Amino acid sequence: MDSNLWFQIPVALVMGFMIWRMIPAAKHWLQNGPKGSSKEWLSVSMMMAAVVLFVTFLIVVVRG
Amino acid sequence: MLNTNTITRSAESALSTNRVLRNTYALLAATLLFSGVMAAVSMAVAPPRGMSLVCTLGALGVLMFLLPKYENSSAGVGIVFLGTGLLGFGLGPMLNAYASLPNGSTIVATAMGGTGVIFLALSAYVLTTKKTFEFMGGMLFVGLIVVFGAAIVNIFAQIPALSLVISSAIVLLMSGFILFDTSRIVNGGETNYIRATVSMFLNIFNLFTSLLHLLGIMSDD
């Protein structure tokens, strides 16, 4: 067996297990979580856009 | 009388929220420092790749299975240090790999600084506005499940473009989780500082590793 597979298989299994553990939390928040207004989603989008711009700036910095 | 009771209850609730917030940030600072020291030790010792994987899996086991049993007692604090220390130690070989690149130290320092700026800016926004971001919960968990699914595929497929997309998505998801978790503490949705610390630590840890990966890919080296 390829030695890389000895690392890949346990990592994939753990990630699969974490997905399985996250499904109830996702269901709970989708069914019982509060719904955001369009204004609230807009403010989240603006913050995510700021994060994207900042990461782009960091990429420019490391590329010199 | 009713008004006095209401005011007393709301003052107690505000005090309790402030206590959770203060304890969370104190424990978060201590665990980040400890994890950083463990990462530095791991970089110096340079353990084999298998040891790094064992430490990371061990940390996940400790935080997912052992911690829930002790999260309401002081023993929980020790378990948080054990889990975060193992995560830090597991990070060492990856940091050594990036540090060995021609501008590796710049990439690692930029990822560290970038993580700090994103975390502080988003936390400060929630703490000052006291806005609630709990409406993001469903979207964030579904997003994380989709990204984990894609990551499992890419463990075997090893497609560089997909790796880039996954890291970018994790940076955005962890930024969202910082807003979500901070707003839950501020608005009284999370009352256990040990659980809050672990959530925040994992947000910062994943944000740092994904940003490091992204900067490593995009740096041309």
Short description:
Chain A is mostly helical and 64 residues long. Helix content of chain A is 88%, strand content 0%.
Counted by DSSP, the helix tally of chain A is: 2
Q: Ranges of chain B with pLDDT <50 over ≥5 residues?
A: none
- Separation, N- and C-terminal Cα atoms of chain B: 70 Å
Portion of residues in beta strands of chain A equals under 5%
Characterize the overall form of chain A: flat
According to DSSP, the number of beta strands of chain A is 0
Mean pLDDT of chain A: 91
Structure, described:
The complex is a heterodimer of chains A (64) and B (221). Chain A has 64 residues and is mainly alpha-helical. Chain A is built from two helices and no strands. Chain A has helices at residues 3-32, 38-63. Chain A starts with a helix and ends with a helix. The mean pLDDT of chain A is 91. Chain B is mainly alpha-helical and 221 residues long. Chain B has helices spanning 2-45, 49-70, 75-99, 104-129, 137-157, 160-186, 193-218. In chain B, α1 crosses α3 and α2 (49-70) packs antiparallel against α3. The termini of chain B are far apart. The interface between A and B is large, with 38 and 48 residues.
